[in-house]
Amino acid sequence: MLSFFTMNFWQLVVFISSLAPLGRAASGNLTFPPGFRWGAATAAYQVEGAWNQSEKSPSIWDKVVHEYNHLIQDRSNGDVACDSYHLWKRDIQMAKELGLDFYRFSIAWTRLVPNGFSNAISEDGKNYYNNLIDGLLAHGIQPMPTLYHWDLPQRLQDLGGWTNPLVADWFADYARVAFSLFGDRVEYWITINEPTMVCELGYGLGLVAPLIKEPEVGKYMCIKNIMLAHAKAYRVYEREFKDRFNGKLSLANHYVWYEGETDSDGIAAELTRQFQYGLYLHAVYSKEGGWPPAVEQHIAENSRREGYNSSRLPAFTQEEKALARAVNHYSSRAVRQRRARVPAAQSSPFSGNFEFNVTYEGRPEWKKGRSFWFLINPAGLRNVLTWLKTRYGDHEVIITENGYSDVPDVVNDDVRINYFREYLTQVHRAITEDGVNVTGYTAWSLMDNIEWVEGYKSTFGLYQVDFSRAERPRTPRKSARYYASVVRANSLDVPEPQDIIMINGASQMWTSSMRIFVLLMALFTFRNT
Ligand SMILES: *[C@@H]1O[C@H](CO)[C@@H](O)[C@H](O)[C@H]1NC(C)=O
Ligand SMILES: *[C@@H]1O[C@H](CO)[C@@H](O)[C@H](O)[C@H]1NC(C)=O
Ligand SMILES: *[C@@H]1O[C@H](CO)[C@@H](O)[C@H](O)[C@H]1NC(C)=O
Ligand SMILES: *[C@@H]1O[C@H](CO)[C@@H](O)[C@H](O)[C@H]1NC(C)=O
Ligand SMILES: *[C@@H]1O[C@H](CO)[C@@H](O)[C@H](O)[C@H]1NC(C)=O
């Protein structure tokens, strides 16, 4: 079961909607607007290794991989991973080889402030991130740090982690340390990466660290606290650093596009979107703040029916609402209303929602693989972008993750190239046809790394990493050369390999997983509260 739900969750899958050659996307001008920025991303736990070196303390992932190693598909761990803690110079060189405008990495809370609390800063931790940031800037590459990419200090988890309301202050204190040390050189900060993953998977389904199965109550406590953590960190920056550094901050959210077949399914689809991303947007981007009203009402009614005294979704106070008011896309799901609720234990953001009568499935025209959850619908990304604009107004949007996973040994990764081209074509259309202000795109990932519970079996890297060798050599895949030429040209109109392997022609496709990780980031610098 674990494996099923894990797969279901992680493999936001994508089958290209036609097996016919994708070829070049529509002819015409496929150049991105001047100033469009290109990046690639990693996350601390997935690449750094050195889990117990220097003063670093254990994170919730260190605990999971060591104490619940059977939950990791290949029983691996991130103790060494890509060894980026030692090989950061090579990482910068790779970013340079690709011609990136920015490199998105994350700061390990446990490395910078090993106590979890910000009473002591690790010198080694500070030096590591200073070296990385300065090294990037020396090559003209902007650092884009994420403060939290899922690696909570275990000490804080022992105190309740994201369900303890005090965590918002702990996070803001840690954020202050990072802003004060690195803020002079950072233009874009990401506070929290994909809170939906943290709360739905970590505290709801219990499939990732910290493995807490609390879909009815714990998940919502996490969501509220994580939104407040973001808000408090944002306010710290605004009050104490904005004047000096003038950077921008955002959450990076995660989006699956949902659409309904009939009118009533359409209503369910919209409710689904409100559940899956409105919960993480409304507090920040809506006029009134707080939770999306339809979601709030729904959970309150369910809670009442279940005999709870108050809603399982904790309310915001007026003060908290004011504090929080200030985008990420995966695959698509059709929404169908059905008679019985999906049991809490079985619903996931990709199969159904136990709070109301709904299940999610693919459409026939979204081609499926042998694994039924593989669906490809590149247009879903464009739909998400226009939905965000329609719902929450015209904001700057940065796609903070988008990538494709394959088996590790494929170096001539034409399928990945195709994937990038298809999704980037949709981004281009959102910009040029729908007027969505997308200003940057981030490929996931710069290099192969430990893919959380999937271990090293599924790899997203533009660069292949040989994990069997101590030196962890990195080798550019064909997609790295493709991406570098797109970046250089600022356009999808680039010479490309003629021998693109089609999905139905590539035997490795059937054993590989395909995913989109598109995180969109809307920056909330626009609102006067
Ligand atoms: C192509 O599109 C880009 C970005 O929208 C624009 O700046 C450029 O002028 C266009 N080029 C031509 C030849 O139309
Ligand atoms: C750090 O962890 C490794 C295993 O990854 C272990 O071999 C080593 O002894 C540990 N070092 C310290 C100082 O605990
Ligand atoms: C919860 O509801 C019960 C029954 O209505 C009531 O006796 C109790 O005081 C309530 N508790 C709280 C904390 O409101
Ligand atoms: C689910 O939908 C059916 C039919 O529309 C309805 O009769 C039932 O009450 C609903 N169940 C819940 C729990 O909302
Ligand atoms: C997009 O957002 C950026 C950053 O806020 C802004 O400078 C630019 O003018 C915006 N572009 C459009 C077309 O709105």
Automatic annotation (TrEMBL):
Alphabetically sorted, this entry's keywords are:
Glycosidase, Hydrolase, Signal
Q: Which Gene3D superfamilies match?
A: Glycosidases
The protein's superkingdom reads Eukaryota
Signal sequence range: 1-25
Q: Does the keyword Phosphoprotein apply?
A: no
Which Pfam families does the record cross-reference, listed alphabetically? Glyco_hydro_1
| The UniProt record lists the keyword Hydrolase | yes
What's this protein's family per the entry? Belongs to the glycosyl hydrolase 1 family.
Record protein name field: Beta-glucosidase
Q: What is the phylogenetic placement of the source species in the record? A: Eukaryota, Metazoa, Ecdysozoa, Arthropoda, Hexapoda
